[in-house]
Amino acid sequence: MFLRKIELKNFRNYEDLKLEFNKNINIFIGNNAQGKTNILESIYFLAVTKSHRCNKDNYLIKNDCIFSKIVGEVENNDRKNTYKIVINNEGKRVSINNNVFKRISDYLSNINVVMFCPDDLEIIKGTPSDRRKFLNIEIGQISNEYIIYLTKFNKVLKTRNEYLKNEHNIDFNYLDILTDELIDLNIKLYKYRKEFINDLNNYIVDIYKKISLKEDIYVKYESFIDNEEDIVEDLREKYLRVRDSELNQKTTLIGVHRDNFSIYIDGKEINNYGSQGQHRVAILCLKLAEIEIYKQKYNIKPIILLDDIFSELDKKKKVNIIKYIDKDLQIFITSTDLHSISKRITKNADIFYIEEGKVKLGE
């Protein structure tokens, strides 16, 4: 899979930009705040319809403009498809080959990207919500079905929470119906998340060993589901036990919407107690394990986005990243300094120089 070309209209600081890319390595060089990351952000957004930097799509629209547009041509297994997202004050509209989709979920899972960026540390240091967001985005890139289940889960959860706020005339039969719907979707999402984390663990140990010469790393899924035998009845009992508390607090207290995961190194949970160095290595291993899942399990070659990470890594870790990212993958790299990137990488790359939103391909 590789991105052949992209067109940006009123996206961040770009009024009108059209670029064609090398199918292997593309490097963007420029000082800070010139627009390097904006290009990688546009590629990420084209894939997952979300920014890795902000929660509001309107922030992506260039100042004093009423819309933004991203168009990308992606080649995958000798097939070319054109993906387009238009953002305005009413929301966003997505299409593939000019076929407009009413539901975002029907658009997703077609372009696969793995992003490395400084903000990745929030996956470890941030809240459980940050880690659930990571799971939802990464699993959603692999499985469109997961996105459909997640959308249904959020709708049923919202309906159930609104009903719990009804202080009078609670119909417990109706509440049980909503609870059973929620249980079914809890189980579906739990199985996808557990499988994904098991897959991460299948690769992360070997990766960690090659990077640090140690083997003790583990990703632990922390779910309210802890008994997979008679799982439906077990969850019904759990919801029944918290019913009075839910009625008092007027919200759903248990479910996969409160699940979490932790990373353990040398037997110690590092989310809250690890050093900055441990956090960086763990994130690096986590993302490299993702690439292996795509390649080994799903026979997918994802697009790799490396946003200003070479300046923060020592020489050994830089070498290890490239070692795990083989030549068949398309890679986009941003940096303020071309000399911080190995000549082995730059010699076959297309190098773009960026200054004040102007992009020029080097010769």
Please give a handful of descriptors for the protein shown.
363 residues, alpha/beta, Rossmann fold, Glutathione S-transferase Yfyf (Class Pi), Chain A, domain 2, 2 domains, six-stranded antiparallel sheet, 11 helices, 25% strand
Per-chain topology:
Layout: E1 2-11, E2 14-20, E3 25-29, H1 36-48, E4 67-76, E5 79-88, E6 91-96, E7 99-101, H2 104-107, E8 113-116, H3 121-125, H4 128-142, H5 144-164, H6 172-212, E9 217-222, H7 231-241, H8 243-249, E10 260-265, E11 268-269, H9 276-298, E12 303-307, H10 315-324, E13 331-335, H11 343-346, E14 350-355, E15 358-361
Parallel strand pairs: 3-13, 3-14, 8-12, 12-13
Antiparallel strand pairs: 1-2, 1-4, 4-5, 5-6, 6-7, 9-10, 10-11, 14-15
Helix pairs in contact: 4-5, 5-6, 6-7, 6-9
What's the total count of β strands?
Answer: 15
What is the rounded Rg?
A: 22 Å
Beta-strand residue fraction: 15-25%
Oligomer: single chain
Shape: globular
Q: Helix content range of the residues, please?
A: 40-55%
CATH superfamily of the largest domain: RecF/RecN/SMC, N-terminal domain
Do you know the CATH topology of the largest domain? Answer: Glutathione S-transferase Yfyf (Class Pi), Chain A, domain 2
Most strands sheet: 6 strands, antiparallel
What is the number of helical segments per DSSP (H or I, 4+ residues)?
A: 11
Top CATH class of the largest domain? Mainly Alpha
Q: Mean pLDDT across all residues, rounded?
A: 92
Pick out the low-confidence regions.
none
Overall CATH architecture of the largest domain: Up-down Bundle
State the domain count: 2
Order of helical and strand elements: EEEHEEEEHEHHHHEHHEEHEHEHEE
